[in-house]
From TrEMBL, chain A:
The keyword Signal applies. It comes from Algibacter luteus. PROSITE patterns: PROKAR_LIPOPROTEIN. It comes from the Bacteria. The keyword Signal applies. This is FG-GAP repeat-containing protein. Residues 525-589 form the ASPIC/UnbV domain. Keywords: Signal. InterPro entries: Crtac1, FG-GAP, Integrin_alpha_N, UnbV_ASPIC.
UniProtKB/TrEMBL annotation, chain B:
It holds the Pfam family PAP2. CDD domains: PAP2_haloperoxidase. SUPFAM superfamilies: Acid phosphatase/Vanadium-dependent haloperoxidase. Residues 311-419 form the Phosphatidic acid phosphatase type 2/haloperoxidase domain. PANTHER family: PEROXIDASE-RELATED, TRAF-TYPE DOMAIN-CONTAINING PROTEIN. This is PAP2 superfamily protein.
Length: 1071, 441
């Protein structure tokens, strides 16, 4: 198709502008760029696109090259190998003092200009000398090459023996990793290749089962016969996919589940899932990404695996391409639409988002916390390196980025679409292609460094004061000048490779060398535990990290102010352990493999829950198909759950209201603690309602508990019988009869009862969530006085908010009850019942008026035992794309901007310092087509920062704000509330319910209700916090609920276990 | 195209030469109407309007021009009373020297501008013409323009009331992925079903969108021996057979010639972009132009042809779209990929809306009846409409021949079953006869 382009258009458009970004100068990391003229590390990966080979002909033309760091001559100095795509690779010998000598020619490294990609150093033949494996792109568009295995001959010379070793693969290789997959002591190899096909369709995932000799990945087993080492393709039967569906760009091999067998992480570009091959220990793997991750990066380009938060669980960090500059973000292709999301899921693909992922190891699964740590957007990123650069004991993350030509620029894509292919002559192909490429936008960016400030706080730190903007791809680290800190080498496109000298001096360190004393023994994959100051630090000796690169095989620990190292234990792959004590810090420590003891691998804890016999099943209604600009679905609420003694046997029973098309269920508890489902024809007849909340109260003051069931849903208009609430009257034995009465028919949010006027009859609050079809507008909510005889009188009818939860409680300790309300786009609202018999809004008086959040739940309880009731409230949590504060709230403008009798919601939020519209240009234009005339380009839309930039309307019907997205506690200090955010562990996702058990707060959450642009909130597997002195909380346990589980209610049962009831899912009993 | 351009410059040159003496009346040639229609077509391609929306864009400017001319014409009957809800346009002030042909052309361009997004592209044409006209006869130009704007305002109100704006934010079409019989988004871009509410647009001549409801499609079944299954297999077998014959086969040539898909997605690595073409409606507007030129139609006749053809096409889309989202039938590509051959690709890209009936068949049927009414049967023409899109000329002995081929092209293209083509063509022709009758052709 590209062969048919006309170039008149191109001339008009001219050449592309190159954007250079330099951030303002601030305190930078202690890295110094060492000039190539000084260091001698003179290398540049220069590309020369031509008609045969360019970004249009080869989709990975600008993926760049890799770096390998390792000591090839055992002189104690780390040497460097850099790969080039269209020139010869280079090998540099470290002469000390950061001086390098190009020994490529004399070393015997090939001088051809075949297309090298990844490079890996490993002692493949166990002769004590590091060998070098170079991956290549062969057999494609005039490229011919085989992967090369340079066997180290000593004396700094190498010989390509790939063919002898059976590793002379020729295809589309990205990177290889040598690791011992069967723990037999030798190095096997995983070769990651990439597909080069354009895809017509997402296709069927059955393609995964097919085989492709050029682009499918290959697992090689090292089979030594006497002196002769032969690598044999064992892909078949090992559980490894070898298909053309894999666009493998990211590779690392690490024992992520800590069972003593090395697992494989393969990050795939495009729609194919990333693969996590869990090693079964019997020479087979099980691809387990769906079991371990709630979602993964979509365009995965690089990966590193290390224990980032010092909890001895290996975490996984993967890179994607989400821009952090607001204007670039707005004019680049972003997340899939919800529809495409659904289609991909129906094909069998797992959930993926086009942003970096920070998979925190949770034992038996991972929780992505990239949004919480704000490490999710580093633009088009290639190489993540997890290393403690400042030796403070906390591992940081260095990320290379930049794309030489940016094909996902939406204006460029639009431009391509206006090129008239038909007018383009075959003979002009090359010229036109060249011009097309020239028109493609460029964007070079400074690489990114996240400094770990502990407890999952990361700070974006400039790498150097000049903040060099580059197109950087592969990168590797090592202590190149043996001064105790890690230096970095980056392979850049069309620019000199960067050597970053680390000048950290003020902290302690220890470098562990597992090689020097163990020549001829494979130490890859060994885990090194360092114990000091009551803390445990873990590093794995793995080298393949980042992108197309391999880092030093020495194991580096930053130690901060640690004065004494207590001990070090090295756990070798074979399950043996070497322990060392009396260790001096600030030096290189060589450890010989001497078996001190046998190590017992602690298998990941299996889940400690059992299934409860209730499943909630949502009907499938897609709110955003009706309301294109809304951020969340309002139709997946519930189930409503009430725990109360209905049949008068002093045992707490359960009422669970279902989703639409699912009847409410009534369970009686027996003395054994079993819950027995009761049959009730009234409930069975009421399956048409979507139950969103319910409350048990004695409506008729006859001594038993009746039920008010609140119906809801965004799928029917207000007043529709499908939205009508119900009351079920109890005969005292738990036989419920439906009350024949006309009740409210609204999209309910919360119902709660209390006898606020103390007349013996419990009164009601009925809070509504929304006006169906008009997200954002505030519906009426009602306070109803029970006047006896099952009659109610409206005391208050007001627009109180988009209510999700309510509690009655005496916050003021004056004997009068207050009403506490939470919901979307509203503060924690307090109404107090005054002497005149009215409800008065005290929110502002009490200082809670700037607490607007996306609240899901509120609990009122005395947490600090000071006799005053505190407020505990569940929100979206911090692991969320939107960020909000009082200074920079999320804003929602509500109006019918195009006068077509449909409400339009224009939402703006702060995106790394600049306000951006939440809805993409395409979405906004679909909802308000008249704007197409004003925004003919994405570049124009990229400057929109405010509603007035979009629409010419000064008086807007309504504006709503969100100031707070954290899960919070508000401590009651008498006249005012003191706010405190729950710890980061309780901010991984939404909190939907709490159970306060003495000093412990149990919580559950997650939701799939957000549109794909925000993404699912699924990183909360439930947990418990403990109140400690001074109104602080510590995270004490995780409930390890299944990944994806959206817990809506957590209750304590009489045996002390907890029952957690999920939305559109099973329910679980947790020990 | 080149010939056209030189003719047009020639007119300007002549006008320019004579303009120094006493002001002459401004002459408006039929070519200028063709020019305006061509411009609308170009902009439609640039702005990517879906086929139904494109059909609406053609109709209203023609109505404006037609009504202006009809005031003083012996041949053109006003459409007021014939097309739904149209009220009489403001009367021209006979005391002023209004050049009705000039007003008609100005109104055509101005109404078009309101319907498209890239206004500046239309302004380029307008500016060049306005400059010349101002020089030739400023007074005549000004009064004619003023009158044109009165009519434009009138037509704007008329078109604003056709429910188009309301349908913009009606719910998207909800896809039921679990129901195999129902339409699902198709590769490669899996676009949403376009214009699910097009049957709520006010038709021009039909009494309702379902007036020409076709007979139901064969009952969905994947059992061998059923009619539906036979038709599914026919799509698959025909496609395989003609693919084997290669790119030079007549069937592939026919499929490509009538593709008329305004938005074909192309995926290359990180790129996903579109190649653009005219819509089926635009193709038939192009044929109307060819016939007008061939018969040396004057301005009145030209406007008459464009107007009546575009009204038939617009109503054909409303009728067809009504059926599409009633029957919601799955496309052959989806079923073939699911049940027969996961790698099968239709020769044409499957457009993003349900299968039954074939839009091209309905539209071609309707347009061919109206054009036959205007120009007679057995009207031979060389169809060069697709030349700008790299396709050759095809010649036809009659409009009916062309519509029959256009309909069948959907089978060759692998995007429709036989029933959608046969029943669609019938639906279109029935509708065409109704329209022709109402418009007294």
């Amino acid at each position: 198709m590209a062969k048919k382009l006309v170039f008149i258009f191109l001339i008009i458009l001219g050449c592309s502008k190159e954007e250079k970004t330099t951030a303002h100068i601030e305190a930078s990391a202690p890295f110094k760029v060492v000039d190539a003229n000084v260091s001698g590390l003179d290398f540049s990966n220069q590309l020369k696109p031509d008609g045969n080979l360019n970004i249009i002909e080869y989709l990975y033309y600008y993926n760049g090259g890799g770096v390998a760091i390792g000591d090839i001559n055992n002189d104690g100095l780390e040497d460097i190998y850099l790969t080039a795509n269209q020139q010869a690779d280079k090998l540099f010998l470290n002469l000390g003092d950061l001086k390098f000598k190009d020994i490529t020619v004399e070393s015997g490294i090939s001088q051809d200009s075949t297309w090298s990609t990844g490079v890996t150093m490993a002692d493949v033949n166990k002769d004590g000398l590091l060998d070098i494996y170079v991956s290549k792109v062969g057999n494609y568009k005039g490229l011919h090459a085989k992967n090369e295995l340079y066997i180290n001959q000593g004396n700094n010379t190498f010989k390509d023996e790939a063919e002898n070793y059976g590793l002379d693969f020729s295809g589309f290789s990205t990177q290889a990793s040598f690791f011992d997959y069967d723990n037999d002591g030798d190095l096997d190899m995983y070769l990651m290749n990439h597909s080069v096909h354009s895809t017509h369709s997402y296709g069927n995932i059955r393609i995964r089962q097919t085989s492709d000799a050029l682009s499918g990945d290959v697992l090689y087993e090292n089979k030594q016969e006497g002196e002769h080492i032969k690598f044999v393709d064992v892909t078949n039967g090992a559980g490894i996919y070898n298909s053309p569906l894999g666009y493998g760009l990211a590779l690392s091999t690490s024992d992520v589940n800590n069972d003593g067998y090395i697992d494989i992480y393969v990050g795939n570009d495009f729609h194919e899932n990333d693969y996590l091959y869990i090693n079964n220990g019997d020479k087979t793997f099980t691809e387990s990404s769906a079991e371990y991750f709630n979602h993964t990066s979509r365009f995965t380009m690089g990966v590193d695996i290390a224990d980032i938060n010092n909890d001895q669980g290996l975490d996984i960090f993967t890179l994607d391409m989400m821009p952090y500059k607001a204007d670039v973000f707005l004019k680049s292709g972003g997340e899939d639409s919800d529809k495409i999301d659904q289609i991909k899921a129906s094909f069998g693909f797992e959930q993926q988002y086009a942003r970096n992922h920070f998979h925190l190891n949770q034992g038996n699964h991972f929780a992505d916390v990239a949004l919480l740590t704000q490490t999710h957007a580093t633009d088009w990123s290639w190489s993540p390196l997890i290393l403690d650069y400042n030796n403070d004991g906390l591992k940081d993350i260095y990320i290379t980025n930049g794309i030489y030509k940016r094909p996902n620029d939406l204006d460029y894509i639009n431009y391509l679409s206006t090129v008239d292919f038909a007018k383009y002559k075959e003979s002009e192909a090359d010229e036109i292609e060249y011009k097309l490429i020239n028109t493609m936008p460029m964007l070079s960016l400074p690489n990114v460094l996240f400094t770990n400030r502990s407890e999952l706080n990361f700070e974006k730190t400039p790498v150097d004061a000049n903040n060099l903007a580059t197109y950087s791809n592969g990168a590797a680290y090592g202590d190149l000048d043996n001064d105790g800190d890690l230096d970095i080498v980056v392979n850049n496109l069309n620019e000199k490779a960067t050597l970053l000298e680390n000048t950290t001096t003020n902290n302690n360190y220890l470098t562990v060398d597992l090689n020097t004393e163990n020549l001829g023994i494979n130490t890859n994959g060994a885990k090194v535990y360092l114990y000091a100051n009551g803390k445990t630090y873990l590093n794995e000796q793995i080298t393949v990290r980042g992108f197309m690169s391999s880092s030093s095989n020495k194991v580096h620990f930053g130690l901060g102010e640690v004065s004494k190292i207590d001990s070090i234990s090295v756990v070798w792959n074979d399950g043996t352990k070497t322990v060392k004590t009396n260790i001096e810090k600030n030096r290189i420590l060589s450890i010989k493999k001497e078996i001190t003891s046998k190590f017992e691998f602690v298998k990941s804890t299996k889940s400690n829950f059992e299934t409860f016999n209730y499943s909630h099943e949502e009907n499938n209604f897609l709110d955003y198909e009706r309301e294109g600009l809304i951020p969340e679905k309002l139709s997946i609420e519930g189930p409503s759950v009430v725990q109360a003694d209905f049949n008068g046997d002093d045992l707490e029973d359960l009422f669970i209201g279902g989703a639409r098309d699912q009847e409410p269920s009534l369970y009686f508890q027996d003395t054994q603690g079993n819950f027995n489902l009761q049959s009730n024809s009234y409930l069975e007849n009421d399956k048409i309602y979507e139950d969103v909340d319910a409350t048990a109260f004695d409506i008729d003051n006859d001594g038993d508990l009746d039920i008010y069931a609140l119906s809801g849903g965004n799928d029917f208009p207000e007043g529709d019988p499908m939205l009508e609430d119900r009351v079920y009257i109890n005969d005292g034995k738990g036989n419920f009869i439906k009350l024949n009465s006309k009740l409210l028919a609204t999209n309910g949010g919360s119902v709660s009862s209390a006898d606020f006027n103390k007349d013996g009859y419990p009164d009601l609050f009925i809070g509504n969530r929304s006006i169906p079809g008009a997200y954002g507008l505030t519906p009426f909510s009602f306070i109803l006085k029970n006047t006896g005889n099952n009659n109610f009188e409206i005391v208050s009818k007001a627009r109180m908010g988009m209510i999700t939860d309510s509690k009655w409680a005496d916050l003021e300790n004056d004997g009068q009850t207050e009403l506490v309300l939470v919901g979307d786009w509203m503060p924690i609202r307090i109404y107090t019942y005054n002497l005149e018999g009215n409800f008065e809004d005290k929110t502002k008086a009490i200082g809670l008026d700037k607490t607007n959040g996306m609240w899901n739940v509120v609990h009122v309880t005395d947490l600090n035992n000071d006799g005053k009731l505190d407020i505990l409230a569940g929100n979206t949590g911090l692991n969320f794309k939107w960020k909000a504060s009082i200074d920079k709230p999320v804003k929602m403008y509500l109006d019918d901007f195009d006068n077509n009798e449909t409400l339009d919601q224009l939402i703006f939020y702060d995106y790394f310092g600049t306000y951006v519209p939440f809805a993409s240009k395409d979405k906004v234009m679909q909802q308000i087509p008249m704007l197409k005339k004003n925004f003919t380009t994405y570049a124009a839309f990229a400057n929109v920062q405010d509603v007035l930039d979009l629409v010419d309307k000064k008086e807007i019907l309504e504006t709503k704000y969100i100031y707070e997205l954290r899960n919070m506690v508000y401590f009651n200090k008498g006249n005012a509330f003191e706010q405190r955010a729950l710890p980061n562990e309780a901010q991984f996702s939404t909190i939907e319910d709490f159970y306060v058990d003495g000093k412990e707060i149990f919580y559950t959450g997650n939701t799939n209700s957000y549109v794909s642009e925000l993404g699912r909130s699924t990183s909360n597997s439930g947990g418990a916090l403990k109140y400690s002195e001074n109104d602080n909380f510590n995270s004490v346990r995780t409930l390890n609920l299944p990944k994806h589980f959206s817990g809506r209610k957590i209750l304590k049962l009489k045996d002390g276990k907890f029952l957690v009831i999920g939305n559109n899912d099973k329910s679980y009993i947790v020990n | 195209m080149k010939i056209l351009k030189s003719k047009y410059y020639l007119i300007i040159a002549i006008v320019g030469l004579t303009s120094c003496s006493k002001p002459n009346p401004i002459e408006v040639s039929p070519e200028l109407f063709h020019k305006s229609v061509d411009k609308v077509m170009d902009i439609q391609i640039h702005d990517i309007f879906s086929p139904p929306v494109a059909s609406r864009i053609f109709a209203y400017p023609n109505i404006a021009a037609y009504e202006i001319l009809a005031q003083k014409s012996s041949k053109l009957q006003t459409l007021v009373g014939t097309i739904n809800e149209l009220k009489p346009i403001p009367k021209v002030d006979s005391t002023q020297q209004v050049n009705l042909e000039l007003s008609a052309l100005i109104a055509h361009m101005e109404v078009s501008k309101k319907l498209i997004f890239s206004e500046e592209k239309m302004e380029v044409l307008q500016d060049s013409l306005y400059k010349v006209w101002e020089q030739v006869n400023e007074d005549e130009f000004n009064v004619s323009k003023a009158y044109a704007f009165d009519v434009v305002e009138h037509i704007k109100q008329y078109m604003d009331a056709d429910n188009y704006n309301q349908t913009r934010t009606m719910p998207k079409f909800t896809v039921d992925i679990d129901d195999q019989t129902r339409w699902q988004p198709t590769p490669p871009s899996y676009m949403d079903g376009i214009e699910p509410h097009w049957n709520k647009i006010r038709p021009f001549l039909l009494d309702s969108a379902q007036q020409f409801k076709p007979e139901p499609h064969p009952e969905f079944s994947l059992k061998e021996g059923t009619l539906f299954h036979k038709e599914l297999m026919e799509v698959y077998d025909v496609s395989k057979a003609i693919t084997k014959d290669g790119d030079e086969s007549e069937e592939i040539a026919i499929a490509r010639f009538w593709d008329c898909n305004p938005f074909v997605s192309v995926t290359r690595g990180h790129f996903m972009f579109a190649t653009k073409k005219i819509s089926p409606g635009a193709h038939w507007i192009g044929i109307a132009k060819i016939a007008s030129r061939k018969t040396n139609a004057n301005v009145e006749e030209t406007v008459n042809t464009y107007t009546k053809t575009s009204l038939a096409i617009a109503d054909a889309f409303i009728s067809c779209w009504d059926e599409k989202y009633r029957s919601n039938l799955v496309r052959p590509e989806t079923l073939i990929n699911q049940t027969l051959d996961p790698d099968w690709l239709p020769i044409l890209q499957t457009p993003p809306f349900p299968e039954y009936t074939s839009g091209h068949s309905v539209v071609s049927g309707a347009a061919s009846v109206v054009l036959t009414g205007l120009f007679g049967d057995n009207f031979y023409f060389d169809d060069d409409t697709e030349i700008p899109y790299g396709l050759p000329v095809r010649s036809f002995n009659s409009f009916y021949d062309a519509s029959a081929e256009a309909a069948l092209s959907r089978l060759y293209g692998g995007i429709h079953y036989r029933a959608a083509i046969d029943n669609g063509l019938k639906q279109g022709k029935d509708l065409g006869h109704f329209v022709a009758n109402k418009l007294s052709l």
